[in-house]
Amino acid sequence: MSTARLAVMVAVALVLGCAAPPSTQPARRSGFKDMSPATQAMQRDDSANPAMLWVRDGEQLWARTEGAPARSCASCHGDAKAMRGVAVRFPAWDDALRRPVNLGTRINLCRQRHQGLPPWPAENGSLLGLEAFLALQSRGLPIAPPEDRRLLPHRERGEKLFGERIGQLALSCAQCHDERAGGKLGPALIPQGQATGYPIYRLEWQGLGSLGRRVRNCMTGVRAEPLAHGSVEMAELELYLAARAMGMPLETPAVRP
């Protein structure tokens, strides 16, 4: 769905009351449960899941030596299986930057600090592939944000962002994904927006994309200035979303309509 079409649908739904909240607040629910059987089957079967094309590229990147030090990810971390449990703990604190960073930013920081390479740009296929490959090692584990007191004020700011009305349509994330989750926006079901499967393959995109891309799409849809990729504000919002999904299993690489 284009952002322009989303904006029109949101505006019409609010006027006509089509986006009214359901009568009861449902328990936490992955978007996977609301997909068609065919799309669910696509996610379950790695041989049919199109996101696995990026994962295979990420697997090769893990072992590829690059930069002046001629190092690979494996040079420092060894077998990728040793990274099981890492992805479910992001965003995490970065001592040098003194702020939270998501997994994609951490990968880029490693490229800069340990391989002497420039960071990949946001939504770059190599970055998404390596992030998805790393997250795959933790698939099925419960999302477990770090118990780090330094993150608390950032998580609180992320929660505030989630509840803040923004854009020309004056809507917040919470109004759709908490208050109206399970309702309808036009013909489409409004999901809870649980961040359990990123990077994610969306049939709409015909490609893999980050959580930041999805957030920016929503913000553009309500006619707001989107948060910048890699910004501290984006990391704070992602930190709150991780806390909101705490305990839910990681699905990466997930598939969505």
Describe the structure.
This protein has 257 residues and is mainly alpha-helical. 41% of the residues lie in helices and 7% in strands. The chain contains 10 helices and 7 strands. It has helices spanning 3-16, 37-44, 52-63, 73-77, 103-114, 125-136, 152-163, 173-179, 211-221, 232-244; strands spanning 92-94, 99-101, 184-185, 188-189, 200-202, 207-209, 254-256. The protein has a 3-stranded mixed beta sheet. A two-stranded antiparallel ribbon has the order 1-2. Strands 3-4 form a two-stranded antiparallel ribbon. Helix 7 (152-163) packs across helix 10 (232-244). The model is unreliable at 11-23 (pLDDT under 50).
Quick structural gist:
The chain is built from 10 helices and 7 strands.
Which descriptor suits the 3D outline? Answer: globular
Give me the count of strands: 7
* Multimerization status: single chain
What would you report as the Rg, rounded to the nearest angstrom?
18 Å
Instruction: Give unreliable regions as ranges.
Output: 11-23
Distance between the termini: 10 Å
User: Mind describing the biggest β-sheet?
Assistant: 3 strands, mixed
The SSE string, one letter per element, is HHHHEEHHHHEEEEHHE
Structural class: mainly alpha
Figure out the total of helices: 10
Q: How are the strands of the largest sheet arranged?
A: 6-5-7
Question: Which bin fits the share of residues in helices?
Answer: 40-55%
Arithmetic mean pLDDT: 91
| Strand portion | 5-15%
